[in-house]
Amino acid sequence: MASLNLVQILNGLTLAALLFIVASGFTLIFGLLRIVNLAHGALYLFGGYIGYSVTLGTGNFVLGLVASMLFVAFLGLIIDQGLLRFVRGFVLREVLLTLGVAFVLNDIALVIWGGDTFSVQIPAMLRGAVRFAGIYYPTYRLFVLGLGILVFIALWLLLNRTRLGALIRAGVDDAEMVEAMGINIRRVFLATSMLGASLAGLGGTIGGAFLTLYPTADSEILVFSLAIVIIGGSGSLVGAAVGALLVGMLNTIGQVMFPELAYFVIFGPMAAILAFRPLGLFGRA
After folding, report:
1. Beta pairing partners, 114
2. Domain boundaries, the chain
3. pTM of the model
4. CA 67, chain centre distance (Å)
5. Structural contact between residues 178 and 22, judged by C-beta atoms closer than 8 angstroms
């Protein structure tokens, strides 16, 4: 029983790491830039398909990761400059537009890859299992956990210890003042938007190796990302990490203990948190 509990805890942690990678990009776009991009889940799925195809064609998992990030970042550039800039500031229009983009991307993916389920091929060094504490646990899942921690550290350093991070935070608070100082804040926001999209692509390839890729995976990951941002607080990286941890653990344990109430186990506590913290655990006005 103790081994089973440890396995479930590790499953929750590795799922939380994957959800954080995806939700951190959503936090950058939605929380910091105030853009309601409901196409984020579709970018996750499209990135996973790109990573799957490149990895399958080249046999190189790292190349698949890089290709998915670059391609989805380019998609983010097209969406931002080709569509969103015409409706920026109008929340309802942003929602409808990005929802339409998600449908279009899903249909394109369906035409190219069909409706089958795919799994990204992982390298030989990440296959198998590691033995510790009396159990065997998949090496790849531990890799995902470590990668999630590295992404958190890198984003925290970017936002809090670099000039670009200072410009992003200043632009969120007062974009007009930053532009008055001679800085092209729109270019800074565009780079941030592309970074958020690339994290969705990274998450797609990483998640495609153990959650698999299928036509409705985008809506599921989008629901989780929304829950994470709402629980943690809009625009908070630490909040996204805590929210991902809560959602990952609640989803994993909830499916084991209360399979018929799996979504309630997540959204019930979310409603309770919002009742006392309307802006989320780490959100601010």
Report:
1. none
2. 2-217
3. 0.92
4. 17
5. no
